[in-house]
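#struct-pred

JT: dropping the chains for the assembly here, can someone run the whole complex?
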Amino acid sequence: MSTPRSTTPPENRTPAFGPMAGRRRGPMGHGPMAMMRGEKARDFKGTMRKLIQYLGSYRIAIAIVMLFAAASTVFSIVGPKILGKATTKLFEGVVGQIAGSSTGIDFAYIGRILLTTLALYLASTLFAYVQGWIMSGISTNIAYRFRKDIAAKINRMPFRYFDSTSHGEVLSRVTNDVDTVNQTLSQSLSQIITSVVTVVGVLIMMLTISWQMTLAALLIVPLSMGVIALVVSQSQKYFKQQQDYLGHVNGHVEEMYGGHVVMKAFNGEARSVERFDGLNNTLYDSAWKSQFLSALMFPIMGFIGNLGYVAICVLGGYLAAQKAVTVGDIQAFIQYVRSFTQPITQIANISNVLQQTAAAAERVFEFLAEEEEISDVADPVRPEKIDGHVVFEHVRFGYSPDKVVIHDFYADVKPGQRIAIVGPTGAGKTTMVKLLMRFYDVDQGAILIDGHNIKQFKREDLRCMFGMVLQDTWLYNDTIMENIRYGSPGASDEAVIAAAKAARVDHFVRTLPEGYGLVLNEEVTNVSQGQKQLLTIARAILIDPAMLILDEATSSVDTRTEVLIQEAMYELMKNRTSFIIAHRLSTIRNADLILVMNGGDIVEQGKHEELLARGGFYAGLYNSQFENAEVGNGR
Amino acid sequence: MLRLTKYLKPYLLAIVLAIALLFVQANADLALPDYLSKIVNNGIQQGGVENAVPKAIRQSQMDKLLIFLSVDDRALVQKSYLLVQPASPEAQQYVKEYPALANAPIYVLQQVDAAEMRSLNSSMAKALVAVSGIEQIIADPSKAASMGQALGFDLSKIPAGMDVFALLARLPAAQLAPISSALDQRFASLGDSMVTQMAIAAVKAEYEALGVNVAKLQRDYILRIGGLMLLISLLGGACTIAVGFLASRTSAGVARDIRKQVFKKVESFSGIEFDKFSTASLITRSTNDVTQLQMVIGMMMRMVIYAPIIGVGGVIRALGKSANMWWIIALAVVGLLGLIAIVFSISLPKFKIMQSLVDRLNLVMRENLTGMMVIRAFSKQDDEAARFDKANRDLTGTSLFVARVMVTMMPVMMLVMNGLSLGIIWVGAHQIAQSTMQVGDMMAFMQYAMQIVFAFLMMSMMFIFLPRAAVSGDRIADVLETEISITDPPDPEPFKQPFSATIEFRNVFFRYPGALADVLHDISFTARPGETTAFIGSTGCGKSTVVNLIPRFFDVTDGAVLVDGIDVRQVRQSDLRDKIGYIPQKGMLFSGTIESNLLYADENASSETLQEAADIAQASEFILVKPEGFSAEIAQGGSNVSGGQKQRLAIARALVKKPPIYIFDDSFSALDFKTDSALRQALKQHVAGATVLIVTQRVATVKNADQIIVLEEGRVVGQGKHHELLQSCETYQEIAYSQLSKEELA
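RK: done, full complex below.
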């Protein structure tokens, strides 16, 4: 069985990532590194504009968030300055006491100041909390909307899209990208505000204390910026290297464990370990260097901070002696300087964070902007009864315009006939199915059902005409009862059981611990492949369709179940126009029409005898079965 | 996690060194607030004057001081100071610093040791305060009453204009004694700190009288202390860097060592151990779990060990600054830990729920994607949207709740910290008023308090991280401590020369350890060179297990597998496997190129050999249409070639090896009948002399085998050739009829 897109293993790995993955990005996880995920959006401005539009409905809430974030910051900034007054008063009191000039410390005043500051801090806390509360509401809501939109979008997209996009990629948008937007948005939005307000506010507060000291403090900024840039650029190099080699090591581990038997069978143990050692040692080199370099940042910044500290103390002492500033001012100033560098680093970081947001948002928006299925016709036909007369009228189709796989296909299928689609692996046998059910539209020509072009039907109505049983059995995480009922929601339990009986699966279901109530587990591993196929047959029987699409490949089914499946399928095919992706020669030979496919194209069509007589591709395919059989029978 | 401690051994020195450095770093970090306090106390508040012992003093002033000193103190003072006359040669040296020397003789402080300095400080402070008090009264008699009290006698009684000091100096010792003791009493009630500070004010006044540049004095002091502070901070920084160096080397090194050991161990695992852990779990254990450990070791060395050191040190220093303010810190610590405990006890269980909701969301989405055709075929888009929406809503609700709980953390934490500062200022102010503390000390105390709080925060973080790492550590240790069930015998036998590839199963039983039923039950057969032995049966009948016993992927539970007459358990595994060309069910290629995959069997194979192998395996047709041919890339797991191509390449790989035994473990399943048949034809010609074992589900594949063994539920139910089995074996008939129609089989 073949589909144009390969169901590649990588998607199986995606479940490992959840929305949580964003939170623990960077397996070596060290703080300052988080800022270095150098991912860039292609159209930063455009994406941001879209994102802002998307945020539009939260306009008021966001305004409140901004206001509250600013208020919270302002209140917390004013704190030290006012608190400084208390220190000054205390200091004056002490000095006065020493000089014997005053009665002592003015506790009433200090108490008032402390209470004022406490009130400020309380207000700041409250604003910060309310801000965070609203913001988390906004960002989770956006994540919800994004996910909902993506899920809805998937249902409106043409199949074509998924030819070139793996499930893993789509899943990654729902989880990783949405989560990145969610995380970075709430982080960056409030950070932009608090950082800017902090920098401006602190600068103002510092200036009100002393411009000379402010100047001295500002001189520290470029110095620390330079150091940060230097350290970051160095450690980034090794960090990237480390990630690369971690990838290599993990890749090798995955590969060797996955192919353990092969490795063993070919005595590859020593070679594998040797290769691993090489990779592991390189990883070690870059790992410790990257860790070490990123750990350099704190002590260096600490030293620079202290440098500024001493400068301010010297200057402050001098100014205090001149009575230009008070001791409390110096204390406040020191606090300001300490809270000055952090928001500056944050502002520098925000552009990175925004880039990340934009990159993730861009992928989400791109996905949402993908082309959708063309809509159904305005006045669809709705015949009372479908006989199942199907005509392929000079159909031309290709998955991409430059690769036409069906050139000019004509076939007239009478009601109740069986069409066998045969061909080697990868021949594109499901293409016909996809065209019939309008998963893809034909490029030229038309498919007619009971004389109506299938484009004249509503997609929903069209698809209801077919019962489909694919090798790729699709069941979902619910009870067996509900799984059989899937296509006909109104069906009674009795009808479901009758269908199960017809599909030869009733007995099996009854042997299960909870019978029809058994919930299929997430990977649907609690029933065998063969049973799954029987369940899908029951599902098709229950909807009682006019036409059938069957895939009879049963490669991983034991023989007894296979016999059951075969019986059930024959039961199902009675009096229905059936399209069978056939693997059994008996099915093929009994078909009214055989479509022989190879390389995505219909290479031959006709009845078994005709095709054999023609001695073409089909004859070769058929005979390959028999040359050995003949030898084996000793004839 | 303790099970892995032996991997730390090589790094013991580094760890001990790091701990020692952390002590230095902690001390440096803790010393800094002390210097800050000095800068504020002495540098700013006291104008750079450290204590009550003036470096220089006018002779006139010294004489006054001496009046208030005991005989012993007087001796010490006279010993410590040198009298310099204006015109004397020494004056040259000092006049610049003390301009007053030009007109009057001064005393200059000489070298004194610390003990002398202390005793000088306390005695001279009192004298200075007494003298300056009297001088103030002289300058402003109105203060006499209040000041007199401080001095213990009423100076207002002294007639104005009279030289008090001259008077006092003339007083006999007996009369002076009560005055001195009254002063001492008074000073005791003021407290040493206050007296010293009052004296320092006097010293400052004296310096001014001496013409000293007071501003420069202050600046010099701040610069000196600041310089020291920078030096200490440099030392601390250097220690941090050194610790960082050691920590990153150690953590990366331990991770490297463990990773290597785990990998080596897993590579030596047999199928039993692989099944026990599962491949996915082994991968996680070798990658993520090791990385987790690396992170934790690094964190331990840098922070976790540091936290208690700085915490205890901070407590000691803080108590040194003020012994009775510890309760404020304790309050803050308890408050913060309480906050963290509450937040995490609410959010942690929710995190678990959230993870399952995320999994649920992913599941629904994945079902939507994989079942797209079915969903659309049944027109169930709306129902699916509703199902997804429910999962989405559930996740959103819980994650919002968690986010909002977490959001309380930061603001409340900040509030507690700020509240801590406020509390310290309020309580500290009272202490300062009682002169048990100085402003600078209070500021230092504040910083110690912060350091203590952070230490506790870090330690609480440890309780969040360590359990996680402990789980990783245990998972790794489980792998490392696993005993390998299949090992080489202590003295292996060599195969005979020439080698004959006869394989004999002698009453073989196999059952997984701990399982209740046998997978294989009493299997006996002989496969001979030049013959094809095929195994057929439904899924789970044990046919793959049979052939996996030959290269010792598993060992028999009972009975024996003999190759060339020797029990496979008696030979070296590598010798045994050298004889076998094994083709696994799923192809299983490694990343690289087609060529590198084929060379995996034999690194020295010639390109002709590769070409030939590809021809036989029917792989040439698709290799040659690729523009790169044999150099075409193969992605990890061979994901960029189809299942059938993978199988053909895997067959070609085994052919390159040219072994005497071939095992095809269901290796034709992804091939269409035509390719299958062509391949078997080609094989027949090229491996004519080899022993071939084929596992399959297809009757067509086994039809012309020399020997077919039909298995059902681990037992041999039929053995013979195709036509014989069609007659005699019911299971074989069932299989055959389900695949081929009767006339085809006839």
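JT: nice. Chain B touches chain A through 183 residues (CB under 8 Å). Chain B has a mean pLDDT of 83.
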